[in-house]
Amino acid sequence: MVLDLDACINSLFQRQLLAESVIREICEKTKELLMSESNVVHIKAPVTVVGDIHGQFYDLLEIFKIGGYCPDTNYLFLGDYVDRGLYSVETMSILTCLKLRYPERVQLVRGNHESRAVTQTYGFYTECMKKYGSAQVWHYFTDLFDYLTLSVVIDNMIFCVHGGLSPSIHTIDQIKVMDRFREIPHEGPMADLVWSDPDPGREEFAVSPRGAGYTFGSLVVEKFLHENGMDHILRAHQLCMEGFQVLFDDQLSTVWSAPNYCYRCGNLASILEVGVEGERHFNVFEAAPENERPLAAESQRSVFSNGAPTGLYNNGTGTNAVGNGNGNNSNGGTGFLNSPGIDSAQDTIHYFL
Ligand SMILES: [Mn+2]
Q: Catalytic: 54?
């Protein structure tokens, strides 16, 4: 079988799922490609940077409408492609195809949700079971996650990562020698890169309320930028009601690309266009109108409700920070919207403890 990536990309744009065997082949090829990428990929502007998408496939299509299609626009995606939204499979499928088709023009950084453990709790596993009737597709994609790079540097000036900094990483060279080809560990530098958050009220590192990674303050940012000769940190990972947030005297930006997060937070989203002179422009947008129609349809099917074949999403352990137990849709029939975890827009990892 000859893999026709353009045909795959076209059918995904038509909202059609790829066959399981095609996903397997695409993931195998993409792993080979990613294997040769550094933990720190150096790229050049212009590039359009995208934050968390979380399975909001219709909003991703909107991003291409606003930001331009591949390969006319270079894209850097900062992770958290899956979980929460209704279309993690479609989102991951199209991003993987685009990476494989245009490897130099599309960069995919790993987020804390690109993980076997997290996707079993926040929806991707259940969605794969529901759409393909087995866990194979989930296995193909989560195996691929282990190969995603951890960071990108734009024009030797902007350090890009999903979460943030780590008390055990002082130089970018230290990231380059890490062994990233593994599940995201519970702690240590690799966990910190995908889990940490800035805290404008602090100067140093502190314990994170998420239960993984750290919060880091102004002095940490200043020191990291100075020691590495960079002038900006660009990251995602945190919901911003205005779609983006700039902190620490313009030394750090958060870009958030899931509008009306979980189809109910009412927030704006943005993509960040980095120009050839290093200029940064946030392009702010609202939720795509298409979200209304499919969401109504999905509600009838109750995608992530009690009928899901795994029970993993609604595991009702009681200690689970995102679980309210048993998936009883007390509000009736809206499936994912009533699923646990949505009450808190900020993910935590307490279920590991
Ligand atoms: Mn995240």
A: no
Q: What is the pLDDT of residue 340?
A: 36
CATH of 26-289 given 3.60.21.10, 3.30.365.10, 3.40.50.12780, 3.90.1150.10: 3.60.21.10
Instruction: Output the pLDDT for position 346.
Output: 72
Mean pLDDT of 262-285: 97
Distance from Cα 80 to the centre of ligand 1, integer Å: 6
Out of 42, 54, 113, 226, the active site residue is: 113
Q: How far is the CA of 232 from the centre of ligand 1 (A)?
A: 19
CA of 339 to the centre of ligand 1 (A): 19
- Whether omega before 46 lies within 30 degrees of 0, making that bond cis, reads yes
Domain ranges in the chain are 26-289
- What number of other Cβ atoms are within 10 A of residue 66's Cβ? 16
- Could you tell me the distance, in angstroms and rounded to a whole number, from the CA of residue 7 to the centre of ligand 1? 31
Q: Structure tokens of 78?
A: 């900062």
The larger pLDDT score, comparing residue 310 to residue 259, is at: 259
- Average pLDDT (298-307) is 40
Rounded distance, CA 84 to CA 345, Å?
Answer: 10
